[in-house]
Amino acid sequence: MDISSDIHSQHISRQFNQELEELKTHLMAMGGLVEKQVQDAVAALLEGDSALGRQVVDNDRAVNDMQIKIDAECTQVLARRQPTASDLRLVLAVIRAASDLERIGDEASKIARNACELIDGDNGSRGFVEVRMISEHVRRMVRDALTSFARFDTELALKLVHEDEEVDNEYQSAMRSLMTFMMEDARSISPVLSLMWILRALERIGDHANNLAEYVVYLVKGMDIRHTDPDDLDAEAIARKG
Amino acid sequence: MGWRRAPSAGHRERALESVFTSSPATAGGPIIDFAADESCLAIEGLSLAYGETPALRDLTLRVPRHRVTAFIGPSGCGKSTLLRALNRLHDLNEEVVRRGEIRLEGQDIHAPEVDVAELRRRVGMVFQAPNPFPMSIYDNVAFGLRLQGGLRKRRIDDTVEWALQSAALWEEVKDRLRASAWTLSGGQQQRLVIARTLAVGPEVLLLDEPASALDPISTLKIEELIRNLKSRLSLVLVTHNMQQAARVSDYTAFLQRGELVEYGPTQTLFTNPRLARTENYITGRMT
């Protein structure tokens, strides 16, 4: 059956309501921090702000701590409440989502480290157009994934699954143009490689946002759409299920 | 309230009509079905009432062979009533009125030619509180065999050992078979009762809250036993403990107010039930 975003506040045990509510709140807080980390990491590169880059690297510890805290809370709920049905799916989705958010945090940190190297090397702004374009796309994906999680919005989640394909195409095209730079000018190899790592990190962030969207479908519909080709997903059939 | 007189046949007919004609149709939730050759028990259109109080409303389901089927639901939902109907324990209550059919391996259990004692041998029952007879461990298990008569002592000895082994109790009692059954712990007594039931070779074992009076370790032993027994017979379990239903059953039926709400594979029912009523009950939500 379909569930709505307020379903986890209707238990006879108010304490249980509160515990599940806290899981969602803490995941959203982690999502907010991770979203900002990605934004700051890209800003550090585009604006040449290495201090901001170092701050992103430092903040990654806070992201890791949040994942550990959320995991511990989920463990407590599993041990004490033995949740079933949509409650169980919520706990599983939160554990998985926290793991993907932590990986997005790692990618942001990777972007920031490479940005600091590029800034220190003073290598101009070649390839920044591609980074700007893809970063805007994946940041929107992360934001939409978190929104779909907060609202239990499977329609939005399914849109993201298709968007990830677009990001992959943009990434491939950016890589091709960066390779052309390298072939044209051997001195650009080192900075272009750093840019490639950044683009690779952005592309991975898109993959993690896509994973978050898949967890929303699992949470709301009870359907596991991981490892399913996006073209094989029947959005109408998923919407009807419930 | 005074004693109610056993109602006359005419009264029972009227009660039946007035109770059941007003009963709502079953919830109509998605319900799993088994082919006739996969099921041991088939319940069709079963309604049952205590006097004028309806307890089961137009239930239709089949119980699969060599599987554990759990009936869950809130107090008063009719799950124990349904279980007791399966070996005609309601026959003793004059007030009970019934409509619909129960078939055991294709045969109507209420047909006039059915011998109730034989039915209860084929469909054994274990209750919530262990109820060993006030006699030795051996005599408890041999009781049903002796009632059947015609068996030699050697054969009875073998069957008692087999039943105690099947009930995972043999190792604990083999050196004190002549001791009183009352010397056993609660968990051992419950396994003794299961051995007593197994000794007469039932095809179906009905378990009504078999572990609710036991400590967690004894409960796990009973659950392990239930799991092991399904290769030999079909089991139907009534339990308030949803985790227990989730742990040991293959299929779960959720009943509410005498209706069958949802019936499906346990793994689906506890992770992704189809109906909101089921979801609300198993997750402890207000309805």
From TrEMBL, chain A:
GO biological process assignments: intracellular phosphate ion homeostasis; negative regulation of phosphate metabolic process; phosphate ion transport
GO cellular component, one term: cytoplasm
Database matches in SUPFAM superfamilies: PhoU-like (SSF109755)
Subcellular locations according to the entry: Cytoplasm
Primary location group: cytoplasm
Domain PhoU: 28-114, 134-216
Pfam families given in the database record: PhoU
UniProt keyword annotations, A-Z: Cytoplasm, Phosphate transport, Transport
InterPro entries (alphabetical): PhoU (IPR028366), PhoU-like_sf (IPR038078), PhoU_dom (IPR026022)
Top-rank taxon: Bacteria
Record's function text: Plays a role in the regulation of phosphate uptake.
Family: Belongs to the PhoU family.
Subunit structure: Homodimer.
Record-linked PANTHER family: PHOSPHATE-SPECIFIC TRANSPORT SYSTEM ACCESSORY PROTEIN PHOU (PTHR42930)
Protein's recorded name: Phosphate-specific transport system accessory protein PhoU
Automatic annotation (TrEMBL), chain B:
One GO biological process term: phosphate ion transmembrane transport
Signal peptide boundaries: none
Gene Ontology terms for molecular function: ATP binding; ATP hydrolysis activity; phosphate transmembrane transporter activity
Keywords: ATP-binding, Cell inner membrane, Cell membrane, Membrane, Nucleotide-binding, Phosphate transport, Translocase, Transport
ABC transporter domain sequence ranges: 41-282
Name of the protein: Phosphate ABC transporter ATP-binding protein, PhoT family (TC 3.A.1.7.1)
One Gene Ontology cellular component: membrane
Organism of provenance: Halomonas shengliensis
Xref: Pfam families: ABC_tran (PF00005)
